[in-house]
Amino acid sequence: MPFSESDIVDLTGKVAIVTGGNSGLGLQTVKVLASKNARVYLACRSIEKFNQAITEIKNTCNSYFVKNVSFLQLDLASAATAKAAANEFNTKENKLHLLYNNAGVMGTPKGKVSDDGYEYVITSFLYPKATPLTHSPDVKQFAVNTFALFVFTYHLLPTLQSTATSSSPGTVRIINTASSGAKQAGRAGIPLDSSPTVGAEYSPSQCYGHSKIGVILLTRQLARRYPSILSFAPHPGPVQSNLTRELGIPSWVMAILNKVVFKPAEYGALTQLFAGTTPTLTAEDNGGYLVPPAKLDSKLPHKQCYDDVFGAKLWDWCMTAMRKLEE
Which PANTHER family does this UniProt record tie to the protein (predicted)? Predict the structure, then answer.
C-alpha cells in the first residue's frame, strides 16, 4: 500500500522545526505534523509571513491545530541569522525530534549574494591570494541551500543528539529537502576548488545543481558522523510552489505548468513526511535519498553525490567558513 498521511502515528510530545514553513511543501508539512499533535516551529523570515501561514491553516484545516504551531524567525540568506535562529530555538526547547530543512531558493539571477556577504569573507580567508572579485557572482543558491543549512543544523545538533539519547532509536531525524535538479550541475559537480565563491562562473541552473549536490553530500555526512540521528534527503518531485519565483516565467506559462506538470504540495510533501515519520526507515537506510512516491532510491541524481571523500571535504569547507564568520 502506498504511504499516506493516515499512516503517520500520533506525534504528541514530539518537537519539530520546518524551515520555509510558510508556503508550499513547508506549509503542508507543518499542517500535517501539527494535525498529528507535534509541537511545530514554523521557521520563516518574518512574523507577517508566519501570520499569513496561520491564516491559511485556519482556512484549510481544523483551526484547533494552530495551537501546536509557533514562530521561529529564520532567514537563510545570512549564516549569522541561521545561527541566531538555532540559538533562539535552543533557549525555548530542550528537545528536537524532527528537523525539516525544507527552505531553499532556485534560479537566483546573477548578482545575488547572501546578506552577510559570506562569499567575500571566505575568499579572503580560504583563498588569500585570489584576485578580488569585481562583480557579484551567482552564489546565493549555494549560500542558502547548502551553507546556511549546514550552519543552522550544526547549532541544533547538540539538542538533536541529547533528544536521541532519551528517545526510541530512529525517531530523531533530519530531513534535508533535496532535488533531482542536482543533475543540472554539469559533469564536474561542485567547483569547490576552482572558484572561491562556488559558482561565480556558472549559470543559475548549474549553481542550483551545485547546491543540491551539497544537500545530498551533507546528509550523507550527517548520517556517518551522527549515527544516533537518522538523516534523509528526499526529492519531492515537480511541485506547485513559489520556488520558481526567481526564474522569470510568465504567469500564464506557470498556470499551464501547474495544471500539466507540477503536482499539488500535498503530493510533494508526502515523501518528506514519510522520511521523517515512518518506522520502516531504519539505521540501515541512514543518509538515504528518497523520491516520490515515498520510497528510497539507490540511484543518486549526480555521480558526485556518491563521493563521500568529497563530502567530507565539503563538510570541512563549511566548518572553516562558519568559524571564520563567527570570529
Answer: RETINOL DEHYDROGENASE, SHORT-CHAIN DEHYDROGENASE-RELATED
- How far apart, in whole angstroms, are the C-alpha atoms of residue 246 and residue 231? 29
Range of the domain at 57: 9-325
Q: Could you tell me if residue 232 is inside a domain? A: yes
CATH of the domain at 157: 3.40.50.720
Evaluate whether residue 4 is within a structural domain: no
Catalytic residue numbers, as ranges: 179, 208, 212
Q: Please list the rounded mean pLDDT of every run of 10 residues in the chain (327 residues).
A: 92 98 95 97 97 95 92 93 97 98 69 45 38 41 90 98 98 97 92 62 83 97 98 86 53 49 77 98 98 96 98 94 85
| Residue 255, domain member (yes or no) | yes
The total number of structural domains in the chain stands at 1
Query: Is residue 3 in a domain?
Result: no
The DSSP code sequence of 133-159 is: PSS--S-HHHIIIIIIHHHHHHTTHHH
